[in-house]
Design brief:
Elements lengths: L3 H13 L1 H36 L6 E6 L19 H10 L4 E17 L2 E10 L3 H4 L3 E5 L4 H5 L4 E5 H8 L8 E4 L2 E10 L4 H4 L1 E5 H7 L8 E6 L5 H22 L10 E5 H44 L1 H9 L4 H33 L16 H27 L3 H6 L2
Parallel strand pairs: 3-8, 5-7
Antiparallel strand pairs: 1-9, 1-10, 2-3, 2-6, 2-9, 4-7, 5-8, 6-7
Helix pairs in contact: 2-10, 2-12, 10-12, 10-13, 12-13
Length: 414
């Protein structure tokens, strides 16, 4: 039940000790402020790194060749392994029911791409039709390479938005002929990529055309796969590890590489990388929670100390109340009201200040690995409830001590 006299007592006590109450409130408000800012920063790191993961399809597995490091079957170490179409066909045929997307890759760095009087150095790459999904690219004009282009060795190309802007200067690129290392290709599509200009400064063409036009025979540089989706992360991780191990063993056997040679065939498994990212992000967030909670505890300890001082100052008053018949519960309630009021108001101010800072300043702080720091409402509400509970605990022990004071002892207090 609302007791106006109790609240009058609380405001009177606060007004008599304004500086002390203000400093106590600042310590509590700063605690909740720091906690929410740290949680927002943690979310900003998570958003930034997750954005980087959008650069490629989730669960991508890439396989490439390297130099061997061990002698095997009479062959010396240091052999540079060359992947070929037949190497790509092996896992495609064996794991066809497990593979969702796939593509061989052959890259040429610093190729000369020109249109009219404009030219520039860009990476051009032979790929298959699935590569648009593997790269997580979006076609904004025309279309991407398709299976018909592969079958007919079509001299067509999909170019990145940056290439279009550099070479065509606002003109329509679709249907135009570009020179890629002095060979004509017709532009059939323009794409964008989540990673921005780096990936948009590329030219993609059918693998078959790339190999024939540039005398590569059946050579490829790498191969990329995305496996069928699983119900949960642990299943996906187990599936990807099994797949990479078997593909690696398959290619080592075909290319006469020692089974225990860690080189020769290189593998990048983004599913494993994702696990490392999520583990790291969890540790960062736990650390931020720990620092923030420790800061709140420091503020709450300050409230508890203030309550002890208040109890000491009001010992004689408490003795008189008990002598007049006040119950221990009423004494505890009186002290708790004041501690909860101070921590709640100070915490609410700290919470509003931190949310306002994240709302207005957060969007201005953007980098490659830090984006949109924010704290969702449920987390903010949890911190406020945590703070009110901490305020109650900060006042309970001094209040309990006050309730146990004997009236005769309290009346003798000076």
């Amino acid at each position: 039940m609302f007791n106006i006299e109790r609240w009058q007592e609380i405001f009177e006590a606060i007004s008599k000790n304004r500086l002390r109450t203000f400093l106590t409130g600042v310590s509590v408000a700063s605690g909740i402020f720091i906690l929410v800012i740290l949680l927002g920063a943690g979310k900003g790191l998570q958003n930034g790194i997750e954005k980087q993961f959008e650069n490629d399809a989730k669960g991508i597995i890439e396989v490439w060749s390297e130099a061997t490091t061990k002698e095997y079957k009479g062959l010396n170490p240091g052999r540079q392994i060359q992947l070929r179409n037949s190497d790509y066909d092996l896992p495609v045929k064996k794991f066809d029911d497990e593979i969702d997307k796939k593509s061989p890759v052959r890259s040429t760095w610093g190729g000369i791409v020109s249109y009219g009087k404009e030219s520039g150095n860009y990476l051009f790459r032979g790929i298959s039709s699935d590569y648009v999904y593997l790269e997580n690219a979006t076609i904004v004009k025309g279309r991407f390479i398709n299976n018909s282009d592969m079958i007919h060795n079509a001299k067509v190309a999909a170019i990145g938005l940056k290439v279009e802007q550099d070479l065509f200067k606002g003109q329509e690129a679709l249907g135009k002929e570009i020179l890629v290392n002095n060979i004509n290709f017709k532009v059939i599509g323009v794409f964008t990529d989540p990673s921005g200009e780096r990936e948009e400064s590329r030219v993609y063409m059918p693998m078959t055309t790339n190999q024939r036009a540039y005398g590569a025979g059946d050579k490829i540089d790498a191969m990329q796969f995305v496996l069928n989706k699983k119900m949960n992360y642990e299943e996906a991780l187990a599936q990807s590890r099994k797949f990479t191990a078997e593909v690696k063993a398959l290619l080592k056997s075909k290319n006469v590489i020692a089974p225990d040679d860690n080189s020769g065939i290189g593998v990048f498994n983004s599913v494993e990388e994702a696990k490392q990212f999520y583990d790291l992000n969890l540790y960062i967030r736990l650390f931020f929670w720990w620092v923030g909670i420790c800061t709140i505890i420091a503020g709450v300890v300050g409230v508890s100390n203030i309550m002890l001082i208040i109890v000491k100052e009001r010992t004689k008053e408490i003795g008189i109340r008990k002598a007049l018949g006040a119950s221990p519960f009423s004494i505890i309630s009186m002290i708790l009201h004041e501690s909860i009021f101070i921590t709640t108001i100070a915490g609410f101010i700290g919470l509003l200040a931190s949310l306002a800072l994240l709302e207005f300043v957060g969007p201005l702080v953007q980098s490659e690995y830090f984006r949109n720091p924010e704290v969702d409402f449920s987390v903010a509400l949890t911190t406020l409830v945590l703070l009110v509970f901490a305020g109650a605990m900060a006042g309970f022990f001094p209040a309990y001590r006050a309730a146990k004071i004997k009236p005769i002892v309290a009346l003798r207090d000076e």
